[in-house]
């Protein structure tokens, strides 16, 4: 750490040197979100041409505008993980020295999957609130600009047959879309009726979703013609900068920016220095970030429709009607990112939101395998005295309601001696929800504990894995979702060593199967579960010490694509 300080100090000592007085060259690569890249590039070139150096070596900066999803995919590939919804990066994808995505949520998502991804710095250098963009004629119909609206108002309009046609940029690929998804989720509440409302809202958003921001913007009306207004997108969560840039093109129908309450996490543009960067480049990166904190950079940001990190605006900022003079400032947390911490976000919150989205939009096949050993009769104090089996049935029912008809789902139960000496029993084979939803919903009610039954975990895990692999289908996520509340106890079954060896033998990169194990309560043997999951290429362990939280853990499991969680 002392070396970094010395190098950074060296830059401060040499920054006034002319370019011809320093030797050599440090090449610093920066991948920035496209909307901020021009402002960063102008500031970087001015800084470099002014004689920026580290220990007498000149600094050259190459700033490239790159969609954050593209860089996230490249970083995921480098760390051997994948992120939900993102296509795999090509092997030639380049990782920059400094990454300037539009949101700290990208850093959180990567960190939750790849323990080795620990970027430094992370200070926010710009800001753009997340708004709901509406064509001005539509916005006026809902009370803009005089009426202050909430996300719950938008939710009601989406789910009550209102003529409001919503759209969203795929939240797995877009930070503003993810922020809107989180805001709508917080507006629904947690009771069963609210969950049904959330499902309806998500499906309405999915129907108007786009993979790219530019594609979504093309879906807004181009004229005041009634037919055009009626057939176009009329509301979508976007950034304030998106609205500013769209209106700068002087369209016939301008967009209004609605600043709904509660305020969702803003795009905060963290300055992330990659963990593999050497000390010399790290010092240069620190110097560049300090240059981006100079007062003049606020005006560069304003020209790009962006606010400074503290929410204030520079000269020439084209503020939308109703825009706050300054978005709330955020404090830098210890070991965290500013924007995410300000909104109270963590990786779990993001993964639950993305899990909901994945269940609705991504086609998948899942075999859900439920523990019905006697210990599942244990009561859960935090769930009003319901048993572990009852809270599991509730979570399973909620998950099934969330899955779109593009999914195929099957159900098994397991304990010991359910079919002769066999510990598992098929209730429903993997079947399309489009035709078997009612039967699968009924099968959940058969998650009834066997009094005195033990836990035939090893045999069941192996049989379930083989079942999904044998019926594997391309173009889908093929998964085993296994719920258990205890360690393996089955005198007639195979050993852990046999299970691990068999799973390793079965692992086939051409037919990948995710084995996701969800531990219920505090009696599970985490080491045992991780040993099983790690024997597969795409395994994961999720433990809910409080069984009342199973539904949340389930959504995290759907979203996560690698690693073990708790």
Your description of this structure?
By secondary structure, this protein is an alpha/beta fold. It is built from 21 helices and 19 strands. The chain has helices spanning 2-14, 37-49, 68-78, 104-113, 136-141, 151-159, 175-188, 192-207, 213-217, 226-231, 240-248, 279-291, 295-303, 338-342, 347-361, 388-402, 433-444, 457-470, 496-506, 526-534, 550-559; strands at residues 23-32, 53-54, 57-65, 98-100, 120-124, 130-135, 168-169, 209-210, 236-239, 255-258, 270-273, 364-371, 379-380, 386-387, 408-419, 422-432, 477-484, 514-520, 540-544. The strands form five sheets. Strands 2-3-1-4-11-5 form a six-stranded mixed beta sheet. A six-stranded mixed beta sheet has the order 16-15-12-17-18-19, sandwiched between helices. The longest helix is centred in the middle third of the chain and has 16 residues, at 192-207.
E-strand count: 19
Strand order of the largest sheet: 2-3-1-4-11-5
Distance between the termini: 31 Å
Strand content: 15-25%
Number of helices: 21
Taking pLDDT < 50 over at least 5 consecutive residues as the criterion, the unreliable ranges are 1-19, 329-343, 562-566
The overall average pLDDT, rounded, is 87
Oligomeric state, counting identical vs distinct chains: single chain
What integer value in Å does the Rg equal? Answer: 26 Å
Structural class: alpha/beta
Question: Judging from the principal axes of the Cα atoms, what is the shape?
Answer: globular
Main sheet specs: 6 strands, mixed
What portion of residues is helical?
A: 25-40%
